[in-house]
Amino acid sequence: MAAMIGFGLTWAMRRVDAILRRRLGIVEFSDDPECLYRISFGVLPATMVLPSGASIAAGRRFIEVHLWNDRIPAIPPKGSTTAWAAAFGRGLQYSFALLANYIARDPECRDVAAITASPVFPARLGPDALRRLCQRLGWEIMPGREKRGRVAVWLDNILIWLLIRVFNPEGSRGRGVSHGRIEVWMSRARLLDRYAARTDIEGKTEETMAE
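The structure corresponding to this sequence follows.
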């Protein structure tokens, strides 16, 4: 019975994940099996000034980065070990390199001015570790406050926990249901300077995978 319930939950959440991707316009930009990102496109409604001083004008297009749930390295039974964190970090950097290459070369991205994401963290642990990781990757963290209502936040928390439970089961152990999000941005110039100029995409050089 437990196995049947587990199978049903997995099937249902994979269907939900696919529906959400279609509704949000989330697409795959790379066929590299090691890519950890999918993306969607948006238009900035108002001019934004990043903490670095870089300005992104209203009306400019941006790319929102989404983790590819199926490809996040499986957390081992003993939890998030140093080896797992290192492998995940290398995967994130390599995926940034793929994204930078895509933005630099694809005509559809000529007017993309920045990338953004809204990564989540367990509320019981707080955002500090996630902020440090994002800063190491080159993201700029925007100060923000929750703009959604309580019901929307509650539903988002449940969805996040269920997705983690299905796609990376060990990651849900002791995590709790409550989550928070941070808002991060990176200008096109910073992305290309940090990742595209020094990356051999096809060769997957040591420089690409370095911390």
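Strands lie at 37-43, 48-49, 55-56, 61-67, 112-117, 120-122, 140-142, 179-181, 183-187.
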